[in-house]
Design brief:
This protein is an alpha+beta fold. 55% of the residues lie in helices and 8% in strands. Helix 1 (2-33) packs parallel to helix 9 (166-198) and helix 2 (41-52) packs antiparallel against helix 9 (166-198). It is elongated and about 65 Å long.
Length: 308
C-alpha cells in the first residue's frame, strides 16, 4: 500500500513540476509574442528554455542544418564558449549529428537525445569529441520545430554529465507548439520590418492604431482571405482566439467586417492594395503617399536538417 501511495505521490510531483515549467514557458512565449523586434524573440526564450529542459546552454538554428552555412543563434551562456571555436568545429556543430538523418528520414518530430539515437557511437563521434574537448559538454537534446517540412530547424540543448531525463524530454515536447508559434510570429514580423525598411513607416501607423504585434499578424492573414480556422492553424492558436483578435482589430480601426477592415487597412498603408492593372499587389509605396507600407502573406515556419 505504501508503495502505491509513494508511486502516486511521485507521479503527482512530476506532473506539478512539468506544469510549472510549462507555465513559465507560456509566460515567456506570451512576452515574445508581444515583442515588436523579431530578432529579440528567440533570445527572450533561449536561456530559460535551456534551463527548463535540463541543459546548460542552447543553440537555435532557424534555417537548414548543414555544415557549410547558416547562422547559429544561442543563449548568452553559449555565446562566449562558442566564440572560441574555429570554423571547422563550428561546421561540425552545424551538421547537427546525429539528428539530421533521423528527422530527415521522416521519423517524426519528437525531441530525442544524441545518446538515444547513436548509443555508444555517440561517444566516439567527432561532434561529441569537439563538445567535450572545447566546451566540457557531452550530452545533446534535439528540440525540432513541429509540423513543418524541410528544411528542419529548431534547437539543440547541451549539458554535461548524465543524459537528459524523461522529464526533460516531456518538457521539451510540451514546449514545441509554443516555439512554433514564436517562430511563425518572427517570420511575419520580419516581413513587416522589410516593408518598413522599403516603404515608409507602417510601424508608426500600427502604433497610432494601437495594434499589437499579434493583431498585426492576424490582420496580415485577413488580407489573404483566410478563415478563422485557417489563421488559427497558421499561428497555432484556436479559432476562438482569432475571433477575439479580429474583434480588437475592428474596434481599433473603427470597422465592422472583414472587407471594410482590409480596405481601411489598405488606405492606411498597413496592408498591400491590389494592383488592378496587373492583377497583383502594388510594390511598397506605389500609388500612396510617403510613409505608407504594406504587408505580405506569411510562409510556413522551417525545420531543421542535421548531418554527421
Amino acid at each position: 500500500m505504501r508503495i502505491t501511495a509513494y508511486g502516486k505521490g511521485r507521479e503527482e510531483h512530476v506532473s506539478h513540476r512539468l506544469d510549472r515549467a510549462y507555465e513559465r514557458l507560456t509566460g515567456l512565449a506570451v512576452a515574445a509574442l508581444n515583442e515588436r523586434e523579431p530578432e529579440r524573440l528567440w533570445p527572450l526564450l533561449a536561456d530559460a528554455l535551456a534551463d527548463l529542459c535540463g541543459g546548460e546552454t542552447l543553440i537555435y538554428k532557424l534555417d537548414d542544418w548543414n555544415e557549410g552555412e547558416g547562422t547559429l543563434g544561442m543563449s548568452a551562456a553559449a555565446a562566449a564558449e562558442l566564440g572560441r571555436l574555429g570554423d571547422e568545429a563550428l561546421s561540425v556543430l552545424r551538421s547537427g549529428y546525429p539528428f539530421a538523418h533521423h528527422y530527415a528520414a521522416g521519423l517524426g518530430r519528437a525531441p530525442v537525445t544524441a545518446r538515444q539515437l547513436a548509443r555508444e557511437a555517440w561517444k566516439a563521434s567527432k561532434t561529441a569529441r569537439i563538445l567535450g574537448r572545447s566546451l566540457d559538454l557531452d550530452q545533446v537534446l534535439a528540440l525540432p520545430l513541429p509540423g513543418t517540412v524541410a528544411p528542419i530547424t529548431g534547437c539543440l540543448v547541451y549539458r554535461s554529465g548524465a543524459d537528459f531525463t524523461d522529464d526533460h524530454l516531456r518538457t521539451a515536447e510540451r514546449a514545441q507548439p509554443l516555439l512554433a508559434a514564436v517562430e511563425q510570429q518572427r517570420q511575419l514580423l520580419e516581413q513587416w520590418r522589410r516593408l518598413a525598411a522599403n516603404a515608409g513607416e507602417p510601424e508608426e501607423i500600427a502604433a497610432d492604431c494601437a495594434l499589437t504585434p499579434r493583431e498585426l499578424t492576424v490582420l496580415l492573414l485577413l488580407t489573404d482571405a483566410l478563415t478563422a480556422d485557417a489563421i488559427g492553424r497558421r499561428l497555432g492558436i484556436s479559432a476562438r482566439t482569432v475571433h477575439k483578435h479580429v474583434e480588437n482589430i475592428y474596434r481599433k480601426l473603427g470597422t465592422r467586417d472583414r472587407l471594410s477592415t482590409v480596405l481601411h487597412a489598405q488606405r492606411l498603408g498597413l496592408v498591400p492594395a491590389p494592383d488592378r492593372s496587373e492583377g497583383r499587389r502594388r510594390p511598397p509605396g506605389h500609388g500612396r503617399s510617403p510613409g505608407r507600407g504594406q504587408l505580405q502573406g506569411s510562409r510556413r515556419p522551417p525545420e531543421d536538417h542535421d548531418g554527421r
